[in-house]
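retry 2 of 3: previous attempt timed out while embedding S-adenosylmethionine. Reduced batch size to 1 and resubmitted. Inputs unchanged:
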Amino acid sequence: MRDARGGHTPHTTQGVRSYYEAMTPAYLEGFGPVFQGSRPDSTEELLDYLADALDLEPGMRVLDAGCGVGGPAIGIAQRRDVRIDGMTLAQVQADLAQIRIAEAGLTNRVRVTQGDFATISELYPEPVFDRVMFLESLCHAEDYRIVLAGAYRALKQGGALYIKDFYAVDHRSRPAVQQAQAGDLAKLNALYHMQVPDLASLVDVVGELGFLIKFVRMPEFESTYRHWAKYEHVAQRSWNPTSGQPGEVIQGIELFCWKV
Ligand SMILES: C[S@@+](CC[C@H](N)C(=O)[O-])C[C@H]1O[C@@H](n2cnc3c(N)ncnc32)[C@H](O)[C@@H]1O
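retry 2 succeeded.
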């Protein structure tokens, strides 16, 4: 398990990029245009849910940090009158996103570029965003504190950070399970070039940076692993946890907090 406060991870941003450059076709086949493992069966329901969770108002400017092929950005812009800047490590995703944005007729409100979210504060040194969102992308960060400090700086006063991601289930009260879970987490992290943290340490980092938490919650939709399983089948990469069902090893959580 990773402590989100600590800097070191065994994976590298370059490794994450290579992974997504290679695996994006399999992601599209398995997940469709929204690359999220914590989700309801219907992509439309997920997009409705995200648009609501983000608490958006007309005219807002949003940063989608780790935006994939722009599936969420396009879906949210179709539901709310907002402008969205997306960034993704993988050039192949940025190229596909441009095509999808043009097809959706959203070039005036959605734009996606290739970039590393560890450099948000260099790309956006002024506070210009009303929302910064990380949709199952922050788990790939080499250093959470650097990335989230950049998000804080890029947000306007009164703006908000929204993180939807996976965290290790806290099994400290069940030491035998915790030991088996450690093996499953190590396999997951290696397979997906990420490092799943414990939730408490992530909460600690956002609090330390000055964010004020509005909510930390389990997503309020009925989850399915169908799309994730399809991806693993297509990609021929199987996590297959042995300490429990996927939901007993990691849990999807949403966190919404204000810049005050
Ligand atoms: C599981 S996918 C989720 C994509 C998207 N948020 C969605 O919901 O469809 C993870 C995304 O994080 C991006 N990512 C990972 N590390 C990143 C980094 N350092 N900078 C920018 N994007 C990153 C990947 O390129 C990929 O698009």
